[in-house]
Predict the 3D structure of the following.
Amino acid sequence: MPHSAASLALADFIQASPTPFHAAASLAARLQAAGYQQLDERDEWSLQQGGRYYVLRNQSSLIAFSLGQPGALDNGLRMIGAHTDSPCLRVKPQPELSRHGLWQLGVEVYGGALLAPWFDRDLSLAGRVTCRDDNGQLHNLMLDFKRPIAIIPSLAIHLNRDVNSGFAVNPQTDLPPVLAHSIEPNRDLRALLASELSQRYPERGQLQVLDYELSFYDTQPPAMIGLDGDFLAAARLDNLLSCHAGLEALLASDTRQACLLVCTDHEEVGSSSACGADGPFLEDVLKRLLPNEIERIRAIQRSVLVSADNAHAIHPNYADRHDGNHGPQLNAGPVIKINSNQRYATTSETAALFRHLCQQVDVPVQSFVVRSDMGCGSTIGPITSSRLGVRTVDIGAPTFAMHSIRELAGVRDVEYLQRVLTAFLDCPQI
């Protein structure tokens, strides 16, 4: 796939995936269209040799797998891991604020968000809403307003003359978005949600909103930018870029090997949830793939996980924030992430395997090590590796402005990552 075509497909996926719920639904729709069969964890599974399946948990995490040719599991699983969530602003349970003639909603900061870029953006609202219909049945319904319905206006410089010398954002007082005039008395979010849902799901009849998980997001669509179109600017590149690359690799694989894609929620807040990487989701699925414990251990020890999560590219204005010998560049290939304190799960063996695969498919490869005097982030890699005992390499596409409302990646890196991940899934020996 040409560089620009890969980025355009990624842009469409991001645009359709404003929340983890929408991201998982987008992945599931692509898998369903490609012939993958959905499984329900509440049912008995009857897995067929060569079958292709996917399963959702909490509507926000997904595992898809292809069982490959006869005996494929004896060679272990080729696994790709990523996460569906991104830092954002989540709506509080009782969020309504009516102040000085304006109606606002209180928000919580989800994950380690870069807050300054959220100001003066055209924001919309999306997520999952749990409702009760006229018959007393509960439904989890997806909602996306799509249109700009909110904004967080900056305070004018005239009222904060020192703002350009440093401004600490107070999440409680500075971030509630403005949605409307409060002329209408007793404006209520749940009533607004019920009205929207009745238009989108008329077959459900009259709906009562009981609860919700809603996030604000930037309505500006992804764009390929730069004089030569070298860069992709978009929200949620961390980590929808990796989810999409893993999906494209799975769909492009030759189906001979046993392959698995796991995209879990809640990575940005530690992964400790029923559907997070530090929960039992992947282990539960593997137990059903390989019910015999000894066979499962043997298969896992023959397996490799590629933990795909974006890497920090060297910023030309802040080059001193990188180790001098480890400054990944945009459009220079995927990055192997290494940390001696196990914030990344890469070993010399798994790094060598990934380098070998990159060489095999003519993809450039880079390395990242955080400065020794700075703290290091982490990924699902160490969590999954320690829970399963599976060999793991942490990699990712180099990115600017990670955790901003709008991040930046290299167009060529999107295609590079998909190419090497496909080679990994097709590799006969790992």
Remarks:
- The radius of gyration is 22 Å.
- The chain has a mean pLDDT of 95.
- Residues 10 and 244 are 6 Å apart (CA to CA).
